[in-house]
Design a protein that fits this description.
CATH topology of the largest domain: Rna Polymerase Sigma Factor, Chain: A
Shape: globular
CATH architecture of the largest domain: Orthogonal Bundle
Structural class: mainly alpha
Largest sheet: none
CATH class of the largest domain: Mainly Alpha
Number of strands: 0
Number of helices: 9
CATH superfamily of the largest domain: RNA polymerase sigma factor, region 2, helix turn helix motif
Amino acid sequence: MRQEEEALVRRAMQRDQEAFGRIYEANFDRIYRYIVLKIGNEAEAEDMTQQVFLNALKSISSYKSQGAPFSAWLYRIAHNQVVDHYRKKSKRPDTLPDDPPVELASTDEGIDPQKIAEHGMTMEQVMMAARELTDAQREVISLRFTSDLSVAEVANIMGRSQGAVKALQHSAILALRKALVVETYE
């Protein structure tokens, strides 16, 4: 799989449109989900995802693997798009920047949407609890559970060690549990 991706990337670097199209198809949904969950607006997320791939197409000739999967490079571009989005949004005096929303999925640590629903919690309450997390914790949760990336892939994207990603994930889940338990009883 990795060799096939590398071959596609090499072809795309030589301006092979079919190869870039296959890269686009293979990665669009994951990049879109990542962005929509970070900014909370589907229409804007679709536009931003398109911009990610336009930026990737413009810059692909300068891409260097450095041992990371190509998707890590795309997520870095997407992350930069999200940062730019919030930077522009915060410069407008009529809007206040919100923390990007985070959606949670089942984990071995026990955060489960079904359990959240059983306790009468809404996703809005979960997202409010997620605002208590640090930016890095929200980023890990978003990449791990909305984009279904491995710890190694998240580490590459964030430029951190796998141990640091595991620690961030663990502390984020504990903080969310604590915040959700408090909200349940308030």
